[in-house]
Amino acid sequence: MTTTARGYGQYCPISRALDVLGERWSLLILRDLLVGTTRFNDLSRGLPGLSRTLLTKRLRQFERAGLVERTDTEYALTAAGRDLEPIVFGLGEWGARWTFGDPDPEELDAEVLVWWMHTRLDTSGFPGKRHVLHVRFIDDRRQFWIVIEAGEPSVCMSDPGFDVHASIITDLRTMYRVWLGRATAADAIRTGTIRFEGPSAITRQMSAVLQLSPVAPIVRAAQERQAQ
After folding, report:
1. Mean pLDDT by 10 residues, the chain (228 residues)
2. d(Cα 144, Cα 116) in Å, to the nearest integer?
3. pLDDT digits over 181-221, tens only?
4. Which residues on neighbouring strands pair with residue 167, listed in sequence order?
5. Most-buried pick from 44, 65, 122, 144 (CB within 10 A)?
6. CA 172/CA 160 separation, integer angstroms
7. Do domains 13-83 and 105-221 have the same CATH topology?
């Protein structure tokens, strides 16, 4: 494993690790790789504040450091890259406990949220091979459709023309809080801040369909510790 050319110049394992991981966006790219994102365009779409040029640079740094291997279309974590999972999610645990309050307005991005959501939905209980969810935020003009075809999800920002199984109607702040574990879907449904529209046989399943963020259990656990 090699380090970047410009480092801290200290013979210390922490220093060496930061030579590889300490630059801006590096840990967020690793976060997305660890939760299963493998394609360049998907990484870029999930990190809209990161330019494609800088994403390319970071991925090349990871390749040189032995964290990822690249094929024609995908990036796969090596053993060294997968070994970072407890470190990355350990930072998530620390952040959930000490820095993670309610969202600031500038952190509420509908497109990013729906992009996160689209790979964390279990529609296996729906009939047919194509499942369509319509996501409507009452505080954002844009509308989103999540299409899951034979298990493969995609996001559309214009009507794909397929029958919709269920609509999710909420505001951005509520959906972010539920998605990241700061509030429960059951509470949001009970208070009416999240509504599901569609056939009752489908809408009854929606709490289970929303699998939530991989960090939601970490956030819930941190809240429970703080409440003790």
Report:
1. 64 93 96 96 96 97 97 95 98 96 93 96 94 97 96 95 97 97 94 97 94 96 89
2. 13
3. 999 999 999 999 999 999 999 999 999 999 999 999 999 99
4. 134, 197
5. 144
6. 22
7. no
Neighbouring CB atoms inside 10 A of 163's CB total 8
Note whether 68 and 76 are within 8 A (CB): yes
Encoded tokens for 112:
């990013």
CA distance 83 to 93: 17
Angle, nearest 10°, between helix axes 26-34 and 52-64? 80
Structure tokens at 131: 């499942």
Statement: 105-221 belongs to CATH 3.30.1050.10: yes
DSSP bridge pairs for 130 = 149
Q: What is the identity of the amino acid at 88?
A: V
Give dist(CA 38, CA 68) in Å, integer: 10
**Closest-CA residue to 21 (of 112, 83, 100):** 83
- The residue to which tokens 């740094």 are assigned: 61
Per the confidence metrics, is the pTM higher than 0.85?
Answer: yes
Q: What are the φ and ψ backbone dihedral angles of 98, each rounded to 5 degrees?
A: -115, -20
Domain 13-83 top-level CATH class: mainly alpha
Which residues lie below 8 Å from residue 175, measured CB to CB, with a gap of 6+? 113, 137, 168, 194
Q: Domains of the chain: which residue ranges?
A: 13-83, 105-221
